[in-house]
Specification:
Largest sheet: 8 strands, mixed
Number of strands: 14
Helix content: under 10%
Number of helices: 1
Strand content: 25-35%
Radius of gyration: 24 Å
Distance between the termini: 65 Å
Length: 250
């Protein structure tokens, strides 16, 4: 079985009492187990832990200044969004429940986790579920994506960026799966995620769930492929057995 290197990849372990920014205003207290919310240089990243149906409940998510927010649904009716797969990634086979939401245009900052126990030169498969959403109360088309970073420092890393999705006015993109493969250059590395969206002020939110990092396993041929290979070797052996030496004439 593959070893799981990410702690709390479904964001279910949190000390937050509700849906809120994942660090205190001074950044000294982190509310999401295993993950660290960085700053944009002046303020803690505008990154949130969203629990249950709070994402579609009016004022269900709190920021550090006492403000409240929530998201539009697939239709313009946020109250009905809970029934269309918006509240979590369960609609594509994910764990559901909590998820991470990050404004990709305002106070953008990395959310990361330190990964240990790696083997230098070993490949690791990163998978996660993600979606694009919009903050309720604002209008206009938005775009969203995530970039995943894997490395030892801000100057030594590998990265992977998802496709950019376009979200219609008052819309929701729906959940989708993403995957990539990284190669470890050290036994301890940082796995980080940064949301990016446009335009600033609408605002665009990128959602993240079910983050997993496991040993890369090379693809194994399907049974039909193995049968063809074995059959091919059998035919080759039979042909060699039937071949007769040809006498040479002086």
């Amino acid at each position: 079985m593959a070893t799981e290197y990410v702690q709390n990849g479904n964001f279910s372990q949190t000390t937050a009492t509700g849906s809120q920014q994942i660090s205190s205003s001074d950044g000294k207290t982190q509310y999401l187990t295993g993950w660290t919310n960085t700053t944009d240089g002046s303020y803690p990243g505008y990154n949130f832990i969203v629990q249950g149906n709070d994402g579609t409940t009016a004022g269900g998510i709190a920021n550090n200044t006492g403000g409240k927010l929530y998201f539009w649904g697939k239709t313009s009716d946020a109250a009905g969004a809970a029934s269309n797969g918006f509240t979590n990634s369960a609609s594509i086979g994910g764990s559901g429940g909590n998820y991470l939401a990050a404004d990709g245009a305002y106070q953008t900052a990395l959310v990361y986790q330190v990964i240990t126990g790696l083997t230098v030169g070993q490949q690791y498969d990163l998978t996660f579920n993600w979606a694009g959403a919009q903050q309720h109360g604002y209008d206009g088309v938005t775009t969203d994506n995530w970039t995943a970073y894997f490395g030892t420092s801000t100057s030594s890393y590998q990265s992977y960026t998802t496709d950019t999705v376009t979200d219609a006015n008052h819309g929701f993109t729906g959940w989708q799966a993403a995957s990539t493969t990284f190669t470890a250059t050290a036994t301890t590395e940082i796995l980080g995620f940064l949301a990016k969206g446009t335009p600033n002020g609408e605002p665009p939110f990128s959602l993240l769930d079910d983050v997993s990092l496991t040993n890369h396993v090379a693809a194994v041929p399907e049974p039909a492929s193995w049968a063809m290979c074995v059959g091919g070797f059998g035919l080759l052996g039979g042909a060699l057995r039937r071949r007769r030496p040809v006498a040479s004439m002086a």
